Amino acid sequence: MTFTLTVEDRAILDTVSEFAAEEFAPHAVEWDQTKHFPVDVLRKAAAMGMGAVYVREDVGGSGLRRLDAVRIFERLAAGCPSMAAYLSIHNMVAWMIDTYGADEQRHQWLPKLATMEHLGSYCLTEPGAGSDAAALTTRAVRDGDDLVLTGVKQFISGAGSSDVYVVMARTGGPGPAGITAVIVPGDAEGLSFGANEQKMGWNAMPTRQVVLDGVRVPVANVIGGFGNGFRIAMNGLNGGRLNIAACSLGGAQTALDRSLEYVAERSAFGAPLSERETVQHTVAEMRIQIEAARAFLWRAAEALDEDASDKIMLCAAAKRFVTETGYQVVDTALQLHGGYGYLTEYGIEKILRDLRVHRILEGTNEIMRMVVARSMIKSA
Question: Where is the Acyl-CoA dehydrogenase/oxidase N-terminal domain positioned along the sequence (predicted)?
Answer without folding.
Answer: 8-117
